[in-house]
From TrEMBL:
PANTHER family documented for this protein: STRESS RESPONSE PROTEIN NHAX (PTHR46268), UNIVERSAL STRESS PROTEIN HP_0031 (PTHR46268:SF15)
Pfam families: Usp (PF00582)
InterPro entries for the chain: Rossmann-like_a/b/a_fold, Universal_stress_UspA, UspA
Domain UspA: 7-137, 144-277
Listed Gene3D superfamilies: HUPs (3.40.50.620)
Family the UniProt entry places it in: Belongs to the universal stress protein A family.
Entry protein name: UspA domain-containing protein
Length: 281
């Protein structure tokens, strides 16, 4: 099972909107009794625009002071780091060197001087990071109560469910599968047939999870339609706290999650999104 025992890496852009990611990282660190590494990256191209070395040093100092001010008087161990360079490379490096269990990022859109999140940085990070990436959208007022886990029932989608099981009790999880009927088979009879087949596959998928043997299992939800559309609609209807997806798989949603579907989820999902990459073999 995926464990969140390692440090949590907070990718921060120092914006007010980024406080949501900071608050969630602190809440998770308390929940799992671990530490936080707060990393702010000043992009290399931004540094090149600064005319003198003292200006660069001053900007780094300002960023460090701002982070320390935001993090003072916390009951969580926080290490503040400010770096200059290419954001995705430095975030990946920090996560790997410190064996981070999770990278937490916000959704700030302002990518002006020194502000790196969300946009291309987080999208690239999701594609390249070995650690799960949590994109925070909502204010973190309490631990996650429920989550929807997207699955195509492939082995590649199991890490996402294991990560969700580490974060939440089984009673708060829903396994979600989307299927898109062929154009010539969109009648009720065929839809019900596909749904029954998908529900049976979901039940077998859960039965094959050793972590769930002899205990409660997540709820199963199957829906017909374009994957990201029905998934986002379900998240809105149920007011779920967290949407969890893998990076790739054999068919359906998870196969394309790292591309257009993942981008759509990060862009349009009404809740936080956790993307979990399949471990290297």
């Amino acid at each position: 099972m995926h464990s969140f025992a390692g440090p949590i890496l907070l990718a921060t852009d120092l914006s007010a909107r980024g406080d949501r990611a900071l608050d969630r990282a602190i809440l998770l660190a308390r929940q799992f009794d671990t530490s936080v590494i707060a990393l702010h990256v000043i992009e290399s191209q931004s540094r090149a625009l600064l005319t003198s070395q003292p200006s660069v040093t001053q900007r780094e100092s300002q960023a460090r002071r701002g982070l320390l001010r935001d993090l003072e008087d916390l009951d969580v161990d926080v290490d503040v780091v400010v770096r200059c360079g290419e954001p995705v490379r430095l975030l990946r490096q920090a996560a790997e060197e410190n064996a981070c269990s999770l990278i937490v990022a916000g959704v700030a859109r302002d990518e002006t001087l020194g502000r790196i999140l969300l946009g291309t940085t987080v999208e690239r990070l999701v594609r390249e990071s070995l650690a799960p990436v949590l994109v925070v959208k909502r204010r973190a007022r309490q631990p996650y109560r429920n989550a929807v886990v997207a699955s195509d029932f492939s082995e590649a989608s199991r890490p996402a469910l294991r990560a969700a099981l580490s974060l939440l009790p089984v009673s708060g999880l829903t396994l979600f599968h989307a299927f898109d009927l062929p154009g010539n088979r969109r009648d009720d009879l065929n839809s019900k047939g596909f749904q029954r087949t998908a529900e049976e596959a979901a039940a077998q998928f859960l039965e094959d999870m050793p972590e769930l043997h002899g205990g409660e299992k997540p709820k199963i939800q199957v829906a017909a339609g374009l994957a990201e559309r029905v998934l986002i609609a379900y998240a809105e209807q149920t007011d779920c706290d967290l949407l969890v997806t893998g990076t790739h798989g054999s068919t359906g949603l998870v196969r394309t999650a790292i591309g257009s579907v993942a981008d759509a989820l990060m862009e349009k999902a009404p809740c936080d999104v956790l993307v979990v990459r399949q471990p290297r073999r």
